[in-house]
Known about the structure:
GO biological process, one term: folic acid-containing compound biosynthetic process
Binding site for substrate: 59, 64
EC number: 6.3.3.2
Low-confidence stretches: 1-5
CATH class: Alpha Beta
Mean pLDDT: 91
Order of helices and strands: HHEHEEEEEEEHEEE
Number of strands: 11
Organism: Rhodoplanes elegans
Number of helices: 4
Distance between the termini: 48 Å
CATH superfamily: NagB/RpiA/CoA transferase-like
Strand order of the largest sheet: 3-2-1-6-9-10-11
Keywords: ATP-binding, Ligase, Magnesium, Metal-binding, Nucleotide-binding
Largest sheet: 7 strands, mixed
Structural class: alpha/beta
Helix content: 25-40%
CATH topology: Rossmann fold
Amino acid sequence: MSPKSPIDPVAADKAALRKAALDRRDELPAQDRAAAAEAIAARPLPVPVGAGTVVSGYMAIHSEIDPAPLMRRFVENGAGLALPVVQGRGKPLLFRAWAPGVPLTTAGFGLLEPGPEAPVVVPDVLLVPLAAFDRAGHRIGYGAGHYDMTLAALRAEKPVVAIGLAYASQEIVRVPANDRDARLDLVLTEAEIIDCR
């Protein structure tokens, strides 16, 4: 009989919190989700941008808040866009330049990504999807750790701003975190801008 592998209590707590948060998110009517994305984009941008600033967004899946309206605002203010590319489990994300209207390829889990012909770029601002968050800037993602690894690698090279996008209903009192979890600088919801710095 082989010994049981140790159970990570933080991971177990996150899994339960993730499921509850995703259930709440899924229950939001489609029109409320669309209105929340527009409300976030209607406010002044949360960080200064200009020519040369690269903002990494994402293509929303399932009931995620849609960053497209906010991404358009960044472009209107002179920023260039990028989208993340998953390189595989245990690896940080890669970012490729993208502009609205440019075709995307379908990758694993139905994610839409720029093709290999798109130039690799290093973002200054990252819009980060999430399942749940707290006011300290901790987030629960989908469990693979891609954004945690990516933020750690980017922040070792230069200052970057990580902005979580969420519905207000995704907030929880406290996200169980460990030293591998990268904190968000800001969280934008339809209700407010939360500065976690």
